[in-house]
Design goal:
15% of the residues are buried. The longest helix has 11 residues. A three-stranded antiparallel sheet has the order 1-3-2. Helix 1 crosses helix 2. With 109 residues, it is mainly α. The protein has six helices and five strands. The protein folds into two domains: 63 residues, Arc Repressor Mutant, subunit A; 33 residues, no CATH class.
Length: 109
């Protein structure tokens, strides 16, 4: 991902299930100076991210992160601290997904 895409990714990561309007993304992801100079600076970046399958849009020009496909049957989300505790117990826990796994998934797209 480029630097602009990463800024937008982290902005939308805070609003997982909610569609965020283009103007709000432009305001929150970039700096004040960037937003004042070009209020729609994020439009082209959002379109390219949507084409690559990272984002999904709604009819009212809102965007959100596309959910990770649920093809990993039996896998569950867990916080990094819980994963560390479970792995230190010595048992095999291969069915856990963490935030780091999610970041890697979106980086691959």
């Amino acid at each position: 991902m480029t630097a602009q895409e990463r800024e937008i990714y982290y902005c939308l990561k805070q609003h997982r299930r909610d569609f965020v309007p283009l103007r709000e993304i432009s305001r929150r992801a970039g700096s004040k100076q960037r937003f004042r100079a070009a209020p729609d600076w994020a439009r082209s970046v959002l379109f390219s991210m949507a084409e690559r399958g990272i984002l999904e849009g709604d009819p009212e020009c809102g965007y959100r992160l596309k959910p990770i496909p649920n093809n990993a049957a039996g896998k569950r989300w867990a916080s990094p601290e819980i994963v560390r505790i479970l792995k230190s117990s010595g048992k095999a826990f291969h069915n856990l997904i963490t935030v780091d796994d999610e970041d890697e998934y979106y980086d691959k797209l």
